[in-house]
Amino acid sequence: MENLDVTVLRALRDWRASGHRALMATVVRTWGSSPRPVGSIMGLADSGAVVGSVSGGCIEDDLIARYTQQAAADALAASPDGAPRFVKYGITADEAHRFGLPCGGTLELLLEFDPDAAQLAELVRALESGRLMRRSIALAHGQITQSPAQAPAALAVDGTQLTNTFGPEYRMLIIGAGQMSEYLATMALFSGFAVTVCDPREEYRGAWSVAGAQLTADMPDDVVQAFAPDRRSCVIALTHDPKLDDLALLEALNTEAFYVGAIGSRRNNAARRQRMVEHFDRTEADLARLRGPIGIYIGSKTPPEIAVSIMAEVLAVKNGVALPRDVDVAHVKDLQAAASGSGCVVR
Hints:
Elements: H1 4-17, E1 22-31, E2 41-45, E3 50-52, H2 58-69, H3 72-75, E4 85-89, H4 93-98, E5 106-113, H5 117-128, E6 133-138, E7 144-148, E8 156-157, E9 161-166, E10 170-175, H6 179-190, E11 193-198, H7 202-205, E12 214-216, H8 220-227, E13 233-237, H9 242-253, E14 259-262, H10 266-280, E15 290-291, H11 303-318, H12 329-340
Parallel strand pairs: 10-11, 10-13, 11-12, 13-14, 14-15
Antiparallel strand pairs: 1-2, 1-5, 2-3, 4-5, 6-7, 6-9, 8-9
């Protein structure tokens, strides 16, 4: 599954290029609880086709009724001067209940009518090439300006324009094509990541079965260099083989990847750090970003459960969520070992 913003923009581009009228809705403000964050976008064609979402579904139904069923093609011409419109949902408790918003929730959308196909195509091309883009719309007349952005930014709106930053897909590089990698790759794809899996071992590549993930046989450290991780990338080593994992992890630590980690017990991760200090002249400060044991503690034992715990941690880091210490795998295992009087508990 690709990045949702790109999916919406691509659908809008295709609808407009084929002559359909279309509506682009952007979540501008929320008060109280909200099903979708500020900046979320949705596309609606004059046929009633919808891609993306701005709520749990009821608001989408209302938009379909307003702009397709009730007034057919003329509804999407509701703003003949090209100016976008603001619309609020859930202002009263009755409306919040009607539209399925949480108690006290209010949602404000900006509706753009018939966005330009050529500008959408330009934006999609930039995102597909890995560029971060800033898109601004003048509120008075709907004129769009698009330009490369240097860093991600939250949606901003004032009395004259709305600016939203669209980024390329989040990417995950998995080192190792084993069973756990298949589970993690599947979860990452459904979470909107573009997934690359690296394993020079033919016996593992031959059994790979996850469609949508790119598979390469090159050496992991070379793959990391070619992958060029940025702030929307994560690198995860799952082979348990130092010959494959260590150099790749060291390369990843030299990048802006938001998450770099490796599978293994506390003992294995301590040994990995020791190797990196002794044989590669790294310091503890150099290794501060290296995560391990990876994942959050959920009592996982099987490959799919461990993959769930890893994906949960990756998403928490991606979303800027500080995880409590009682879900840190190493911390919980230390407590368990102390309670049992044994230090041999793994994972």
